[in-house]
Amino acid sequence: MRVVICGAAGQLGTDLVQVFEAEGEEVMGFDLDLDITDHALVMEKIPSLNPDLLINSAADLDADQAERDPEPSLKTNFTGTQNLVLACLDAGCPMAFISSDYVFDGMKGAAYNELDEPNPQSVYGKAKLASERYMASSLPRWYVFRTQWLFGKAGKRNFVKSILRNVKEKGSLRVVTDEVGTPTCTEDLAKIVYRVCTSDWYGLYHATNEGVCSRFEFAQQIVDIAGFEDVPVEPIVYADLDLPCPRPPYSPLDNMNLRLQGFPPARNYMEPLREYIEWLLENDGL
Ligand SMILES: NC(=O)c1ccc[n+]([C@@H]2O[C@H](COP(=O)([O-])OP(=O)(O)OC[C@H]3O[C@@H](n4cnc5c(N)ncnc54)[C@H](OP(=O)(O)O)[C@@H]3O)[C@@H](O)[C@H]2O)c1
Fold first, then answer.
1. pLDDT digits (tens, 9 = 90+) for 109-130
2. For a disulfide at 182, which of 151, 202, 208, 273, Cβ 3.0-4.6 Å?
3. Residue 230: DSSP 8-state
4. Are the beta carbons of 245 and 122 closer than 8 angstroms?
């Protein structure tokens, strides 16, 4: 299978490239060298590659900046995805899109499955939902993978790295208790994307590791695993941080569709988290 991966230098994109290549697929990875917001470039380039599948993992993840100045964020997260949809239409290939728990308001009080009605509260979440819907209404064959709280080896920024950096630089932490979800390992997610995209079972999938925690609990687990259990972690709430983007307060995702289709359950996030922190301490200079 010839697979185009956009956002290939990102934290998930890097693992997507590795997993698809390890399975013997022919991968063409692009990042800022194929700017997805450039309509003419995308329309010229993608069909000429004759792909059997395109995966869009490119995004602008700065949800706070998106509230301050929506258009640059919308341009990447919505217009960029639209461009790729149009190119896939031309190329006659299916497309996979990586979406987010931010499509939900986080007020349900239980994990969200694929039948739950989205209600995004942020510019970032609205762009994700609009992109999902544009793709689903334009292409006959598509996959959406909604995920959350990613951590991976190629990540320049993620929660695990931020916590460990703060521990080293400040020696203490303040972390919110009122955001609950599921940390997800990008290598595990890339394997799920591979399995589903080679099944031809098109549709909407929630795709995370198993287990649920608050950001506060997650930070405590990170410092414990890294051997900094003496570092004080102060519980705070989001209102203390005065950030412009409203986070969904409780948005674990139930991987219901993966389960119903008979895909194997994901690991509990604690297992890849331990492996990841060991790797970071050995390889990342943290
Ligand atoms: N990280 C999370 O916790 C999380 C949670 C839920 C969903 N997601 C979704 O999962 C996907 C992958 O996230 P990630 O953590 O791997 O993000 P990431 O590491 O930031 O990767 C995204 C990549 O896309 C590139 N990019 C940005 N604008 C582009 C453009 N106009 N054209 C081409 N490439 C562009 C980025 O380059 P630069 O870094 O140089 O800008 C980066 O290499 C995204 O769709 C994201 O919305 C992520």
1. 999 999 999 999 999 999 999 9
2. 208
3. T
4. yes
**In the block, residue with structure tokens 């334009």:** 138
DSSP calls for 76-96: IIIIHHHHHHHHHHHHT--EE
DSSP H helical ranges for the chain: 11-22, 39-49, 63-68, 70-74, 80-91, 123-138, 159-170, 186-197, 215-225, 256-260, 270-283
What DSSP string describes 264-280? PPPPBTHHHHHHHHHHH
Per-residue pLDDT band for 155 (boundaries 50, 70, 90) equals confident
Confidence band (pLDDT; 50, 70, 90) for 284? confident
For a mutational test of ligand 1's pocket, the pick from 42, 57, 148, i.e. the residue with the most ligand atoms closer than 8 A to its C-beta, is 57
Paired strand residues for 214 = 180
256 burial level (CB within 10 Å; 0-12, 13-18, 19+):
middle
> SS in 3 state form for 13-40?
HHHHHHHHHHCCCEEEEECCCCCCCCHH
CATH code at 2-156+183-211+251-267:
3.40.50.720
C-alpha 147/C-alpha 61 separation (Å) is: 13
How far is it, in rounded angstroms, from Cα 80 to Cα 229? Answer: 43
List of residues 6+ apart from 216 with CB closer than 8 A = 175, 176, 177, 233, 235
* Domain segments of the chain as ranges: 2-156+183-211+251-267
